[in-house]
Design goal:
The protein is an alpha+beta fold. The chain is 53% helix and 21% strand. This is GIY-YIG nuclease family protein. InterPro entries: GIY-YIG_endonuc_sf (IPR035901).
């Protein structure tokens, strides 16, 4: 009976994960050792840090200055933060345009490099 309950729990957890709404927004990566900030936008803020950190660990991050900071100062010198989650936009193109504008704003406000 316990095996059936475990299977049902796993199915329910998977269904809940698939049904969750992704939150788009602006994020920043800060390197205290280099006093540098990178700002980017993502359609799903819950996933972007894992993707970036994986790219950096593998040495394949497309943002060369961020990869250089990782290589020079190490993972512990970088901090990830959500700067601004966006309101839910029903249409994908509207969300993309809003995200692009907010990234530009935060790049200027934080004197950051866009990624």
């Amino acid at each position: 009976m316990a095996a059936t309950t475990g299977k049902e729990n796993r199915k329910a957890a998977l269904a809940a994960y698939k049904e969750r709404k992704s939150v788009a927004g602006v994020f920043a990566v800060r390197c205290g050792a280099a006093d540098t900030v990178w700002v980017g936008g993502a359609p799903d803020l819950d996933k972007i840090q894992n993707r970036l950190w994986f790219q950096l660990k593998m040495g394949g991050c497309p943002h060369r200055s961020l990869q250089a900071a990782w290589n020079t100062h190490g993972a512990e010198s970088l901090a990830f933060e959500i700067v601004e989650p966006l309101e839910d936009e029903e249409l994908a193109f509207a969300r993309a345009a809003a995200l692009k504008g907010r990234v530009a704003h935060w790049v200027a406000a934080l004197r950051a490099e866009a990624i």
